[in-house]
From TrEMBL:
Annotated InterPro entries: SGNH_hydro, SGNH_hydro_sf
Taxonomic classification: Bacteria, Bacillati, Actinomycetota, Actinomycetes, Streptosporangiales
Residues of the SGNH hydrolase-type esterase domain: 40-206
Record protein name field: SGNH/GDSL hydrolase family protein
Keyword terms, alphabetized: Hydrolase
Molecular function terms, GO-annotated: hydrolase activity
Family matches, as Pfam families: Lipase_GDSL_2 (PF13472)
The UniProt record lists the keyword Cell membrane: no
């Protein structure tokens, strides 16, 4: 019965349907749903200056890889530093993301604003956030992106990077290191990549960040896919 229905086009619900005419094109199969990816971060992620979130590196990565993206966080925030808005990455996760349906992937990006905090506090805060995410969304893939510098990073920035890396290692979470893209001398992302403030990326800088991130995700084998 099943074979004859496939050939003739009859209904399995009891009523016969007309056979498909020769040469009739079948309707396209329904596409798989786009992976749902969420990202929490600082001004590099939510947008700053003339570059808004929809033109930033995260949105560009999402378009390149076919994600549905939800962006959370705020400028000036970090794993420990609440910034002017009064909330850390964990607070942003709880307020903006944790009540939503479980995504395919969560990206936590930042650490730059955790200056003068102390490496141990940063590491412990990052570990606590990762544990919280896992309890809330046990099936979600998690990725951490370290602090981003568009120019030569100061020495203390490497301490922050190491603290975030250690937290990722403790929780067995992939760590993407933007410092690797600074080149052997740590000089930056190239001409035209930084706004006049000397900190935030231009549109060109976001394009370069997005290209690096797509490559890094593929290198680590953590591209989000539909569940």
């Amino acid at each position: 019965m099943a074979v004859s229905c496939l050939v003739s086009g009859c209904s399995l619900g009891g009523g016969a349907t007309r056979p498909l005419a020769a040469g009739t094109a079948l309707p396209p199969a329904s596409p798989l749903p786009a992976p749902l990816v969420m990202i929490v971060g600082d001004s590099f992620t939510v947008g700053s200056g003339p570059v808004r979130a929809w033109d930033g590196y995260a949105a560009r990565v999402a378009r390149e890889l076919g994600w549905q993206l939800i962006t959370a966080g705020a400028a000036g925030t970090g794993f420990v530093n609440p910034g002017r808005v009064g909330r850390t990455f964990q607070d942003s996760f709880l307020k903006e993301l944790s009540w939503r349906p479980e995504p395919n992937m969560l990206i936590i990006s930042g650490g730059r604003n955790d200056r003068r905090i102390g490496a141990a506090r940063i590491e412990n805060a990052a570990v606590h956030l990762l544990e919280l995410v896992r309890r809330r969304w046990p099936h979600t893939r998690i990725v951490i992106v370290g602090p981003i510098w568009m120019t030569r990073a100061p020495r203390w920035a490497y301490d922050v990077r190491e603290a975030v890396l250690l937290a990722a290692d403790r929780q067995e979470v992939p760590f993407l290191d933007p410092f690797e893209a600074l080149g052997p001398h740590g000089r930056g992302w190239g001409r035209g990549a930084v706004l006049p403030d000397g900190v935030h990326p231009t549109l060109t800088g976001h394009v370069r960040l997005s290209r690096w991130m797509v490559s890094a995700l593929r290198k680590h084998g953590v591209e989000a896919r539909p569940s």
